[in-house]
Design a protein that fits this description.
- With 118 residues, the chain is an all-alpha fold.
- It has one domain.
- It contains seven helices and no strands.
Length: 118
């Protein structure tokens, strides 16, 4: 799967996304074999509509996924443990469908708006 992540952000007019963040997205797409925009949309809907018990289950699922992604980075991409941890944990809020911080929230909204246009 060839990622279109960088092109996608540029298409949205988001130019200030750090290169390491784009790389994290590309790596996650390679790992999951899914477009990150699709993952964000699905996770946001799941979390938004979940009750308290289901939200806990979703959080536990994402914790396992983040750990599996970290291990994949170490084993497949030869990342050191610290680097793999940083990359995997940095995507945690997006994987859960919880944008954190203004820049991420704006990015999250832009992704969803762009998807609505297609």
């Amino acid at each position: 799967m060839q990622s279109r992540t960088k092109d996608f952000w540029a298409e949205l007019g988001i130019m200030d996304v750090a290169e390491h963040t784009l790389r994290s997205f590309v790596l996650y797409e390679e790992y999951s074999k899914k477009a990150i925009a699709d993952t964000i949309r699905l996770r946001m809907g799941n979390f938004k509509n979940a009750g308290i018990n289901k939200k806990r289950e979703l959080q536990e699922e994402v914790e396992r996924e983040v750990e599996d992604f970290r291990a994949w980075l170490e084993e497949t991409k030869n990342f050191g443990r610290s680097s793999a941890h940083y990359v995997s944990v940095s995507l945690k809020s997006l994987l859960l469908g919880l944008p954190v911080g203004l820049q991420v929230a704006q990015l999250f909204d832009a992704i969803l708006d762009a998807q609505d246009w297609k």
